[in-house]
């Protein structure tokens, strides 16, 4: 059984009845009343850590109710004040700093959160859970190197810590140490510590096994599906809206975006010619694919819209193509997608992978397609591109690409919102 945290020091025990009365208001959802009660207690007993903590919690609750970042910042400041008081029980310090770090992350103050987590680790050096949280803090600012050191330290102290194992495995995989990452990911998931049943670890373990040619990958995808992390064994996106129609391949009519498809197919030569002009420049505007999705080969992209934002500079190079697309907000406003040219050279293989979200569909317009040697698989079906024709698939399903032709392949990629998303969802879903 988990021990109940000790939150009262000697002084707070003498005002327990008043503290309990204020806390009762908070738990009943009477947030404004609770805040006034705790503020009165703080004014009367400024040395009371529990009163200060109650004030922070009430501000936190009120921030959520009001959807106010300003109020949330007040809560963060008050959580920090708790720790600076004399004779604060260690359990209350832990709760205050942990919540402070969490709320800082919520506001996007990742570096501030990191300082708070570092303070926690300094105060409680033997608590592996705080070191694990610190590792996540480093990962959130993209500092994999320091995160790796933290998890190495945890694993020296606690070799079977599942949380540290999966995160260490995740970092190794990000470093492209695929074979080395597998045992850490596998053992971490096997030990099953709380907090590690995130779909991303099943996702990365399966992906690592697939890249090593190990058929065990699908066993882990199946387990991830059974535990509710994936919509299906094949559809393994992690940022989803439940209930959307799910199938690997779509027709234009099924999407409802027939006007967009007609426009792309009607103007494919214009789109192709502007793309070729950009490709042929000495200072190529195409950038190599940087998501580590290639087993081998040469694959580059030239992006016009990203996360619903137009790249004005890029569009100056292909003005007619961009003008054409401006008429279709289902594409240009898709904050979970991109619009881009994609060139793939012979000898390229793209690993089986899935996109991040089920909220979009992906259109591929064929621009320069060799007669043989290029194909794409989505789920269990292979297809090929045709010049001037649009292929539509749901990239939240596993897909894989081979380019074994004698010449390059050029396509135009247009992501669109999933047609079943409401106008409200399209306005409010966060970008990916």
TrEMBL record:
<dbReference type="InterPro" id="IPR027443">
    <property type="entry name" value="IPNS-like_sf"/>
</dbReference>
<dbReference type="Pfam" id="PF13432">
    <property type="entry name" value="TPR_16"/>
</dbReference>
<keyword id="KW-0802">TPR repeat</keyword>
<protein>
    <submittedName>
        <fullName>ASPH hydroxylase</fullName>
    </submittedName>
</protein>
<dbReference type="GO" id="GO:0005783">
    <property type="term" value="C:endoplasmic reticulum"/>
</dbReference>
<dbReference type="InterPro" id="IPR007803">
    <property type="entry name" value="Asp/Arg/Pro-Hydrxlase"/>
</dbReference>
<dbReference type="GO" id="GO:0062101">
    <property type="term" value="F:peptidyl-aspartic acid 3-dioxygenase activity"/>
</dbReference>
<dbReference type="Pfam" id="PF05118">
    <property type="entry name" value="Asp_Arg_Hydrox"/>
</dbReference>
<feature type="domain" description="Aspartyl/asparaginy/proline hydroxylase">
    <location>
        <begin position="265"/>
        <end position="419"/>
    </location>
</feature>
<dbReference type="InterPro" id="IPR011990">
    <property type="entry name" value="TPR-like_helical_dom_sf"/>
</dbReference>
<feature type="repeat" description="TPR">
    <location>
        <begin position="128"/>
        <end position="161"/>
    </location>
</feature>
<dbReference type="Pfam" id="PF13181">
    <property type="entry name" value="TPR_8"/>
</dbReference>
<dbReference type="InterPro" id="IPR039038">
    <property type="entry name" value="ASPH"/>
</dbReference>
<comment type="similarity">
    <text>Belongs to the aspartyl/asparaginyl beta-hydroxylase family.</text>
</comment>
<dbReference type="InterPro" id="IPR019734">
    <property type="entry name" value="TPR_rpt"/>
</dbReference>
């Amino acid at each position: 059984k988990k021990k109940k945290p000790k939150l009262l020091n000697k002084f707070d025990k003498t005002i327990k009845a008043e503290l309990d009365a204020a806390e009762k208001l908070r738990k009943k959802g009477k947030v404004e009343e609770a805040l006034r009660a705790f503020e009165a207690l703080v004014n009367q007993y400024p040395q009371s850590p529990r009163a200060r903590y109650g004030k922070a919690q009430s501000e936190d609750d009120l921030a959520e109710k009001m959807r106010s970042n300003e109020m949330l910042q007040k809560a963060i400041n008050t959580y920090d004040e708790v720790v600076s008081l004399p004779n604060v029980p260690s359990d209350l310090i832990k709760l205050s700093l942990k919540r402070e770090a969490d709320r800082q992350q919520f506001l996007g103050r990742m570096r501030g959160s990191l300082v708070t987590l570092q303070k926690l680790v300094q105060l409680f050096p033997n608590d592996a859970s705080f070191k694990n949280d610190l590792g996540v803090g480093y990962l959130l600012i993209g500092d994999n190197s320091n995160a790796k050191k933290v998890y190495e330290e945890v694993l020296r102290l606690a070799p079977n810590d599942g949380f540290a194992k999966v995160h260490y495995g995740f970092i190794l995989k990000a470093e492209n140490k695929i074979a080395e990452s597998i045992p850490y990911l596998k053992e971490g998931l096997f030990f099953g510590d709380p907090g590690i049943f995130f779909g991303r670890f099943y996702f990365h373990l399966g992906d690592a096994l697939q890249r090593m040619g190990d058929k065990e990958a699908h066993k882990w995808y199946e387990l991830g599906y059974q535990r509710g992390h994936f919509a299906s064994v094949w559809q393994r996106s992690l940022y989803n809206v439940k209930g959307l129609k799910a199938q690997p391949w779509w027709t234009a009519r099924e999407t409802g975006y027939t006007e967009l498809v007609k426009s792309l197919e009607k103007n494919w030569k214009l789109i192709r010619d502007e793309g070729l002009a950009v490709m042929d420049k000495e200072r190529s505007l195409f950038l190599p694919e940087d998501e580590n999705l290639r087993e081998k080969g040469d694959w580059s992209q030239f992006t016009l819209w990203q996360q619903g934002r137009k790249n004005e500079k890029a569009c100056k190079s292909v003005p007619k193509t961009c003008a054409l697309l401006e008429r279709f907000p289902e594409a240009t406003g898709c904050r979970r997608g991109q619009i881009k040219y994609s060139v793939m050279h012979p000898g390229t293989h793209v690993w089986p992978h899935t996109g991040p979200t089920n909220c979009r569909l992906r259109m591929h317009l064929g621009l320069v397609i060799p007669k043989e040697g290029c194909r794409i698989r989505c789920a269990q079906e292979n297809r090929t591109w045709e010049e001037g024709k649009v292929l539509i698939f749901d990239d939240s399903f596993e897909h894989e690409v081979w380019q074994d032709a004698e010449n390059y392949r050029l396509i135009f990629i247009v992501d669109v919102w999933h047609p079943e998303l409401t106008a409200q969802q399209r306005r409010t879903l966060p970008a990916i």
